[in-house]
Write a structure and sequence with these properties.
Elements (H helix, E strand, L loop, with lengths): L8 H9 L15 H28 L5 H28 L11 H5 L9 H26 L4 H28 L21
Bound molecules: fe (ii) ion (2 copies).
Length: 197
């Protein structure tokens, strides 16, 4: 690779001294900042909605399998909170402001908050949300590409956890209701393409 590919050290040093109030966002930042910040705030809202939904499911789980499933819901709620915290911290690093305003939270998140009437319905709704999340984060990762490797790496880590969550919910569903496997291709399991946790 030619040396012309790299910026010379004098220019790098001079650039770093300019606009130092922008912190981690240098002139070399290749992302479209306003779009990245909007996407991250939508992901933040979505994760918060997912924390709320999993926590409700944790407290509302009843029936013979409730204890084990409730524990799984709580574990997921904690991991979704961790995602929200990571995303909020990255928004600040990029010079933005994380939006925690409860007004419009649900509209910003795009994801559905489905209370769930019974254990199977809760698990099914969580599985749907996780499958939507997988598509949504995959799209964000593809969009960001090489333009912002820190944000992309963070999103890849979150995506890996959402895949584990989906797998956990699918396993619970088929363990508690073996017929669920046969219904896995019903429309309710298909992703809407909107963001979720
Ligand atoms: Fe999440
Ligand atoms: Fe998740």
């Amino acid at each position: 690779m030619s040396d012309e590919f790299f910026t010379d050290v004098t220019t790098l040093r001079a650039r770093a001294r300019q606009h130092i109030e922008r912190g981690a966002v240098t002139q070399g930042y290749q992302g479209q900042l306003d779009v990245v910040l909007r996407l991250l705030n939508e992901a933040l809202a979505t994760e918060i909605v997912c924390v709320l939904r999993y926590r409700r499911h944790h407290f509302m789980a009843t029936g013979i399998h409730a204890v084990a499933v409730a524990a799984e819901f709580l574990a997921h709620a904690g991991e979704e909170q961790g995602h929200a915290d990571q995303i909020a911290a990255r928004i600040v690093q990029l010079g933005g402001a994380p939006d925690f305003d409860p007004q419009g939270l649900h509209a910003r998140s795009h994801s559905e908050y489905v209370a769930g009437e019974n254990l199977m319905e809760m698990i099914r709704e969580d599985l749907v949300a996780e499958r939507v999340a997988i598509d949504s984060y995959s799209e964000m990762i593809r969009y960001i590409g090489d333009s912002d490797s820190t944000t992309r790496t963070m999103l890849e880590g979150i995506l890996a956890t959402e895949e584990e969550h989906a797998d956990d919910m699918a396993n619970l569903l088929t363990t508690l209701d073996p017929k669920a496997q046969a219904r896995a291709n019903e429309p309710m399991f298909m992703s809407s393409g909107k963001g979720s946790c």
